[in-house]
Amino acid sequence: MNVSRVVPNICTNRFxxxxxxxxxxxxxxxxxxxxxxxxxxxxxxxxxxISLVRxxxxxxxxxxxxxxxxxxxxxxxxxxxxARGYGIVYPLTDEPWGVRRFFLxxxxxxxxxxxxxxxxxG
Length: 122
Hints:
The protein is of the alpha+beta class. 18% of the residues lie in helices and 43% in strands.
């Protein structure tokens, strides 16, 4: 199994200001914008990313994922997490924007978004 990307998720109730901060100060550009989540990437290193999550509260807490781990086989990781009894807080789901993901809690209670991109048939 391969981890291909790790992205911190920053919850903010100052969404537009946060986008402006990271784009103007650090030079990030918008790589993905779904209105409730925006992923920013470095133009020089596209794997250097952060995601901003629109939230009514700050900082993230509860079942908000603070970290995203993109893996080569999300089904395998999900099966292993279930077999080991780790707390799944969002079920394995194919999302309409092209990822298959689930959330689980690590031993310290941190919620992690584990995902793979869904491959198009063809």
